[in-house]
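Open question from group meeting: does this chain pack into something compact, or does most of it stay loose? Before anyone orders reagents, we agreed to write out a predicted structure and look at it together. Recording both the input and the output here so the notebook holds the full record.
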Amino acid sequence: MVALSPTALEAFFAEDDNSAVVMLNLIRFEPDGGRERYRQYLDLAKPCLARFGAKILFSGDGLPLLTAGQAEQWDAVTVVQYPHRSSFRDMVGDPQYQIAFKVGEAAIADIVLQPLKHFGGLT
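Structure tokens returned:
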């Protein structure tokens, strides 16, 4: 189920908007055709991402975990870079993206969206 937290979004958008942000998507697919629907979502979403200056840095299947403990196994990971936080906000509100989002929503049983920012001084 895809459910964005209004409180978390408000705090995210209130932060400095002068640098790129990377969004880590940890995805668990619906068992009945979720992976295929997610690929359809990506095909529909790519033109929207491009319009807002975003790009997919990586998308791929999760492999078996190498760590012990309470870590969860995810079916796939997608990493997207946005030029600014406002680019993400504007894209999510875009009517064309909303069409793609419905396909993605039907594909996903569970998701974690983790925004990331660059460590200063590292490449």
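Observations to bring back to the group:
The helical segments are 6-14, 34-51, 85-92, 95-107.
The CA atoms of residues 67 and 90 lie 37 Å apart.
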